[in-house]
Amino acid sequence: MTRPRGMSREQIEAFLAEPRNAMVSAIRKDGRPQMTPNWFHWDGSRFYVSTTKARRKYENFSRDPRVQLAIDDATGFRTVLVDGTVELRDDHEAVFEQFKAIRAKHNREQNDEDFLEELRRDQRVLLVITPDKPIDEWTSWGPPA
């Protein structure tokens, strides 16, 4: 059996633009991974993931900002793995466009005023994830171009 080839930069960018989940992996206090599926937005340099202050991943990333993302398409045999660092942002107005981009990617747009109120009410936090390596060095596999 041959090992699948890595995807090109163009294939990765197109793959990340599709509506899908990223498995977001944080590190628990005891060192074990804590993974959750989340919607995300990739802007070409950073990933954006929405969570709340009540979630365990918020606590974990407050303590240790290391992260790994696994974005997968099991039916198309495509996967991208990204190691990075998380910055927590709760200044809703400053990162409002990124919150909106996550929802827009999944066809869940709503009135800006109502959405901003929802972000505040739910104590939403934006995980701003900066990859450790350039896109050409990420681990990926998929069908040939």
Low-confidence parts = none
Q: What is the quaternary state of this protein?
A: single chain
What is the string of helix and strand elements? Answer: HEEEEHEEHHEE
Helix content: 25-40%
What's the total number of strands?
8
Number of helices: 4
Helix/strand/pairing category: alpha+beta
The major sheet is characterized as: 8 strands, antiparallel
Plain-language structure description:
It contains 4 helices and 8 strands; from the N terminus they run H-E-E-E-E-H-E-E-H-H-E-E. With 145 residues, it is of the alpha+beta class. Strands 1, 2, 3, 4, 5, 6, 7 and 8 form an 8-stranded antiparallel β-sheet that branches. The radius of gyration is 16 Å and the shape is globular. The two termini are 19 Å apart. The mean pLDDT is 93.
Please specify the SSE layout and strand pairing.
Layout (H helix, E strand, L loop, with lengths): L8 H9 L3 E7 L5 E7 L1 E2 L4 E6 L3 H8 L2 E8 L4 E12 L6 H10 L6 H10 L2 E8 L7 E3 L4
